[in-house]
Amino acid sequence: QVQLVESGGGTVQPGGSLTLSCAASGNIFNLNIMGWYRQAPGKQRELVARITTSGSTNYADPVKGRFTISRDNTKNTVYLQMTSLQPEDTAVYHCNWKRSIPPQYGYWGQGTQVTVSS
User: Which of 97, 78, 96 is nearest to 19 (CA)?
Assistant: First the structure.
């Protein structure tokens, strides 16, 4: 089992910034992918960004150039720096941890709300 604890959500005005954190604990396998997904009301959960243990990253097109994902392997923690936030970024952001190699099972955090509103 892997436990994920997220923090850093909140309400911000358009154009503002927030940084999310997600700390993993438990039975951590060294080769893993940590990522952030988001789910807005009435929409499906979608990938925001993910990062491998070695630092390779992927971003969804809507957040490229505005969001930055990073990780600290010594702390098993992943971060999501979000800048130039827009109302369409409003969603519950969920942290995900997954093994990089088979069996590729994964775990989800409980989610943290990000609201962008004036």
Answer: 78
Beta carbons of 87 and 116 less than 8 angstroms apart: yes
Q: What is the 3-state secondary structure (H, E, C) of 49-90?
A: EEEECCCCEEECHHHCCCEEEEEECCCCEEEEEECCCCHHHC
CB–CB of 58/49 below 8 Å? yes
pLDDT tens-place string over residues 1-31: 999 999 999 999 999 999 999 999 998 888 8
Q: Is the peptide bond before 103 cis (omega within 30 degrees of 0)?
A: yes
Average pLDDT over residues 70-85: 97
Question: Which residues is 11 bridged to in the sheet?
Answer: 115
